[in-house]
Design goal:
With 322 residues, this protein is an alpha/beta fold. It is 42% helix and 14% strand. It contains 12 helices and 6 strands.
């Protein structure tokens, strides 16, 4: 039986149960008063409630409602609430820790109990906020208007043509339940093969098969998978139909990958309004939004898993009700 506590408060409370990412060695200066977990909670609130600046976050938290009082309590340590400057500084640094945090959370859901140990690699493009920066203007360093996000870049999509924006790189389970295991966000001009080694290094050891399209068919990725005793299955180069040994097995895997990762990308964009322009500007803020959304997706699946709810149907309604 689910209690009367709001879904948002429950998702924020789950952060306390997520394994902590080992922090890097602290440099000179004052020690941290607030743990990174506190700012992860703030990111969950910002993603669910569509708050994209510190001002919006603090303004909403200041509202005198029961839910906001509960959330303020979860963001308070020993009676102390972070100052605006602390919020700005720590949320600015948080995106660098999100990829590792995303990799930790999957241990709590254990998707391998009922499915094969295969993972699909892919990337999906997100449009930049504020319009496009045409190459003729970029070449001479001219920014036609201040709304343009100059940290984004161009890429060509096979479905949508040229897009100016960002690229969200994902590794997700190939199973009845789609769970992202690793994620990273870059400018759209970064090739998938540049980011794939980092994604592979963050995958749990249970993963045995890596599925990818032709972009991932490189000797470097093949060597990396061989080193970790994993099997890399990708689309082959050359004219169709292929007649080499193993073509029928690859066909099964490719169909499974396509159904999984393509549907997950669409579901993810539908949940977090990713079909239009992103709501943030700049690499740091957009990484916080996109990777924070991946974290919220994981928390949502975990929450529904613990309450015996469907892990595929009803996610958007649940998130809207949070």
């Amino acid at each position: 039986m689910i209690g009367q506590t709001s879904v948002l408060v429950i998702l924020v409370q789950l952060i306390d149960r997520v394994p902590r990412v080992p922090s890097s060695r602290r440099g000179p200066g004052r020690p941290k008063v607030y743990a990174d977990q506190l700012f992860l909670k703030a990111v969950v609130i910002m993603v669910v409630r569509h708050l994209h600046t510190v001002h919006e976050l603090l303004t909403v938290l200041a509202e005198p409602t029961a839910e906001m009082r509960a959330l303020r309590q979860l963001l308070t340590v020993n009676g102390q609430f972070p100052t605006r400057r602390t919020w700005e500084r720590r949320l600015q640094a948080l995106p660098d820790t999100l990829p590792a945090q995303i990799g930790c959370l999957v241990r709590l859901i254990q998707p391998w109990a009922t499915c094969g140990r295969a993972v699909a690699l892919d990337s999906t493009v997100l449009r930049a906020r504020g319009g496009v920066w045409h190459q003729k203007d970029r070449a001479v360093g001219v920014v036609p208007h201040t709304a343009i996000d100059t940290e984004a870049h161009w890429t060509k999509s096979g479905w949508h043509g040229w897009i100016y924006g960002w690229k969200l790189h994902l590794a997700a389970t190939v199973a009845a339940v789609w769970i992202p295991l690793a994620a990273e966000l870059t400018a759209a001009n970064h090739a998938d093969t540049e980011v794939a080694p980092d994604l592979l290094c963050r995958l749990p050891p249970e993963v045995r098969i890596i599925l990818g399209d032709r972009h991932y068919n490189t000797p470097a990725l093949q060597a990396l998978c061989n080193e970790d005793e994993r099997i890399l299955v990708t689309t082959q180069y050359g004219r169709y139909p292929h007649r080499d040994a193993g073509v029928e097995v690859r066909r099964v895997f490719h169909k499974l990958r396509s159904v999984t990762i393509e549907n997950f990308n669409e579901q993810f964009k539908g949940l977090f309004d990713g079909h239009g322009q992103v709501p943030t500007k700049g690499l740091t803020n957009t990484r916080r939004f996109a990777l924070g959304a991946v974290l919220v997706y994981q928390l949502l699946v975990w929450y529904r898993f613990e309450h015996g709810l469907d892990l595929r149907v009803g996610l958007k309604a649940c998130l809207k009700a949070a």
